[in-house]
Amino acid sequence: MVKAIRMSRTGGPEVMEYVDVELAPPGPGEARVRHEAIGLNFIDVYFRSGLYPQPLPGGLGMEGAGVVEAVGAGVTEFEVGDRVAYASRPNGAYAQARNVPAAVLLALPQAIGFDTAAAMMLQGMTVQYLLNRTVPLKAGDTVLFHAAAGGVGLIACQWARALGVTLIGTVGSDAKAALAKANGAAHVINYNTENFVERVREITGGKGVRAVYDSIGKDTFIGSLDCLAPLGTMVSFGNASGPVPPFSLGELASRGALFITRPALFSYTSTRADLEATAASLFDVVASGAVKIDIRQRYNLADVGQAHIALESRATSGSSILLP
């Protein structure tokens, strides 16, 4: 038996139950991973609330790091005792141990600890594809990144700095502004005291930015479009304030033939080659010290309800992990 979080219905944090579950031996193509740390991400809230559907009853969590305890038939790339990390569906990482498809596991370099790995796989690989593939950035580009003091945001601030990109970040407090600035944001806007559209136009001399990375959704969407230079790209990759409402494509034409995309990590890592290349890029930039993973919140797995409340109230900064 292992302890795990299970839910039989969608709703608030109270639907997550800390229970004993029977863990079967790993099946063909699977490996059993004993978690040392588990990632906590806003996408978990979407699944818990029902915004993103999943079969129920079921688990939560897409990211973890630990040690292989057993392997199923046909698994040759991993052995018992290997250090591994992953960020993938199906959900179920909120557990002391689980069976994971070996095809999504990644060998964890000795230079990277379990806590760091659990905090960075989903967020770090997201930043990797956003800055290098969705809009391939180059030195001298200027971009706007919302929620710059969150887990994804702080990684993006550092990675953009390493690429020579001018990143303008938005945050919700002066303390978060200082944090984003310390992590490499060239300019920081407190959206509770400043109009971010006006400030972006001021910072860019009226030109606008090449790309906007928006994980906020409903509350910032139109303003984000207004920050783009002609032929710029709107990257909508989250819905923290709610889904973006329907809009006319004429909104893009009237602002200078803008591009828009709604990317997802698992589309960018759908092949084993892409997954390994994305992870290798992340491991390299972290191991080099160019990007440091700032874990600011640690919660016991049994206290996951408190963790979700903190996430939804935007009381967190940096990365958060669960400890089994």
UniProtKB/TrEMBL annotation:
<dbReference type="InterPro" id="IPR020843">
    <property type="entry name" value="ER"/>
</dbReference>
<keyword id="KW-0560">Oxidoreductase</keyword>
<dbReference type="InterPro" id="IPR036291">
    <property type="entry name" value="NAD(P)-bd_dom_sf"/>
</dbReference>
<dbReference type="InterPro" id="IPR002364">
    <property type="entry name" value="Quin_OxRdtase/zeta-crystal_CS"/>
</dbReference>
<dbReference type="Pfam" id="PF00107">
    <property type="entry name" value="ADH_zinc_N"/>
</dbReference>
<dbReference type="InterPro" id="IPR047618">
    <property type="entry name" value="QOR-like"/>
</dbReference>
<dbReference type="InterPro" id="IPR013149">
    <property type="entry name" value="ADH-like_C"/>
</dbReference>
<feature type="domain" description="Enoyl reductase (ER)">
    <location>
        <begin position="11"/>
        <end position="322"/>
    </location>
</feature>
<dbReference type="InterPro" id="IPR013154">
    <property type="entry name" value="ADH-like_N"/>
</dbReference>
<protein>
    <submittedName>
        <fullName>Quinone oxidoreductase</fullName>
    </submittedName>
</protein>
<dbReference type="InterPro" id="IPR011032">
    <property type="entry name" value="GroES-like_sf"/>
</dbReference>
<keyword id="KW-0521">NADP</keyword>
<dbReference type="Pfam" id="PF08240">
    <property type="entry name" value="ADH_N"/>
</dbReference>
